[in-house]
Design brief:
- Two copies of one chain form a homodimer.
- The first copy, chain A, is built from twelve helices and 17 strands.
- By secondary structure, the first copy, chain A, is an alpha+beta fold.
- In chain A, α1 (6-18) packs antiparallel against α3 (90-103), α3 (90-103) packs across α12 (379-399) and α10 (320-333) crosses α12.
- The two termini of chain A are 16 Å apart.
- Chains A and B meet through β10, α8, β11, β12 and β13 of A and β10, α8, β11, β12 and β13 of B.
């Protein structure tokens, strides 16, 4: 099996880290000047590697192997969360670049725009898979600045070319490498994770409407306390979910807001943001029923309850053959130091797996930290991961 | 009994409403230009009524009857909450003015600075009672602007004169009238409330420290979710308080904040603001024990819990003789349309009652609304209340 050039790989990753550098991490939100610079830098790197590179109408950087034959698509994303880590996304892209250079042919590389969702969910990979409408592009805007996606693309200089679409006949499949973003590999002294499936999720924003009142003069019996209604709802989740959840299910009340949120005022409104994730669609469905039951019960209380947002995604199973190829390669380079595991976080692979077989490889996150500038992975784990990734790719291409 | 001049009373209240007018209410935060104007306007009114008026070193407006003999002190406050009601405070002060004019002698009037707590709790009435130290004045600052109390007093032109102190031998006692700030009188078709006691309270700010983590990749078993710890704590209050509380106890979780408060992040911190009120010290103590028990249980969980603020006040019983005088007067002018009731809100009377006997009279709040510009009371209820107040004052002074 061909050996990757670990120094070349790390040198490129270090170079990418300089673009939008923030402390030990990177601040490179989608279509910021730093992100645009990173996309052009990557396109040049892909060209240098012998690929035909382009940046398309949604900002996807795409490098095509000009040689004939079926290809393996590799990639991830170049933009980051705000003040976040240097490897989240970039590592998977540069792995693709390094494998393309190492194998010499058979590899296309994609850097999918906005996996981090500054404008919306999986804009780039959905565009590539034909799952993003022009209408959605019309209505998306930056979650922080409010700038429309159309304006952002125009200002970035990406609005001219058409959007690239996947040619499913061209591809044997899609491989993506990523940092784990959790501490499970580290906790178990493992160096590689082979993803079995990417979790699906259900996401809710739920509002309780009560009646705002003076906290000293309003008797308990006549109160419509939206905060209490919310607390009882969340306590209900914590009470009932464990019995229905699978062993890997996770659920999180990420935010709570009381209105007006003053010491001496009975809250007239309350809002919570809640989500749960699992790889098993049946578990997601059963948990959804728990939520619906709690909503029904809450509606019988003194406050009005309304679901102001309900969304989510379906679980994505990774291709068993790709899992086997990654496993075999992992066992060769790090015997006993790898495990199959689900991905609790979302990735572009969950979109592209809807079109072609897909596989994912995880390397350990030090301390499990991600979405923070302190995110890191040991250099030797980065290099090992790329070699394992490269061997698996070669094996998959060989099988045809 | 002498009759008040209802038109003169309403004319003065309408005039005060113009100072800092906001929609149908008033925006007159403590030591704002509008508040300063209102204090000078009141001082002139008190002089006009034959009292010796002054504004002292804490901003209290004080009108002294120059005639000999024991006096009855009356008052309330002129500043308002932000964008709040026109009667909350001002009505009690103008009642004092009107009673002083009607009786011709025997009445001193005080407008206590900052009852609404823009700088701190009961600054003006505590100063008058000798319960506010120079050190506290040094360290108080505006809860919104951060301007120090010293600077605010200087800018208002109030820092020159000394602070007036109560002469307890001078006073037969203190009477305060106020809007109810609740809907109990209205709900029971009553026109007057005679306050039996002002509730005491316990106030807490409680912080939970967990560990911030990725909501997709962090297993439930290793989480330290500060939001869940907080929700369980509040649910515990709702579960246990009813068994220990008195029939009139009120308790309120007024605010909840999760840190960082993002959909996909396990909260690393959580804070709540909680209070409860009752007129019975034994009930307050028993409820405090419930909170301490819940804190102990929370500390056994995965998160650290700390009480970052713990404060409160003791209940203040109103003088039985003053209650009887108000009741007799109420029965004369509105037979069967009055009731004894506790005050769930705090008032300057709770401070001054520590020095001299005190009584309070409530008039109905339309729809129970207060701390909002829509706060209102029917003109005929305002006039009735002042006549009842005046008769009670005359009766108390007569008894000597």
């Amino acid at each position: 099996m061909p050996a990757i050039d670990g120094n070349r790989l790390l040198k490129d990753l270090y170079a990418a880290r300089e673009i939008g550098k923030y402390k030990t991490g990177v601040h490179r939100p989608t279509f910021s000047p730093q992100d645009i610079e990173a996309r052009h830098w990557l396109a040049a790197k892909l060209t240098e590697a012998g690929l035909e590179s382009s940046i398309d109408g949604i900002g996807n950087v795409y490098g095509r192997d000009p040689t004939p034959g079926r290809k393996l698509l590799m990639g991830s994303h170049m933009e980051t969360q705000n003040h976040a880590g240097w490897l989240d996304g970039a590592m998977g892209v540069i792995y693709g670049l390094e494998v393309a250079r190492t194998l010499g042919h058979g590899i296309d590389v994609g850097s999918w725009a906005d996996e981090e969702g500054h404008f919306g969910p999986f804009i780039g990979s959905r565009s590539f898979c034909g799952l993003l409408t022009e209408h959605e592009i019309d209505v998306c805007s930056n979650r922080e600045t409010g700038v429309s996606l159309r304006d952002a693309l125009r200002q970035a200089g990406f609005s001219g070319p058409p959007r690239q679409k996947i040619d499913t006949a061209r591809y044997r499949g899609y491989l993506e490498a990523h940092i784990e973003q959790g501490a499970e590999l580290e906790d178990h002294h493992l160096r590689l994770g082979i993803v079995t499936a990417i979790v699906g999720s259900r996401r809710y924003r739920i509002h309780f409407k009560g009646q705002q009142n003076h906290a000293g003069t309003t008797r308990m019996s006549v109160r419509k306390d939206a905060g209490v209604a919310l607390v009882k709802f969340v306590a209900g989740i914590e009470e009932r979910f464990p019995a229905v959840a699978g062993p890997r299910t996770v659920w999180t009340t990420g935010d709570i807001k009381l209105e007006p949120g003053a010491a001496s005022v009975v809250p007239g409104g309350a809002e919570l943001v809640f989500q749960f994730r699992d790889t098993d669609p049946a578990v997601l469905e059963a948990l959804e029923k728990v939520i619906d039951g709690l909503l029904e019960e809450a509606a019988k209380g003194p406050c009005e309850v309304s679901v102001t947002y309900r969304g989510g995604s379906t679980p994505s199973a990774m291709d068993p053959g790709f899992q086997a190829a990654l496993q075999e390669s992992a066992q060769r380079h790090a015997p006993g130091l790898h495990q199959p595991m689900p991905s609790g976080a979302g990735h572009d692979a969950q979109i592209i797996s809807q079109m072609v077989p897909a596989g994912m490889l995880f390397v350990p996150s030090i301390g499990g930290i991600s979405h923070h500038y302190a995110e890191n992975t040991r250099d030797e784990d980065i290099v090992l991961g790329c070699q394992v990734f490269c061997d698996a790719a070669a094996a998959i291409l060989e099988k045809g």
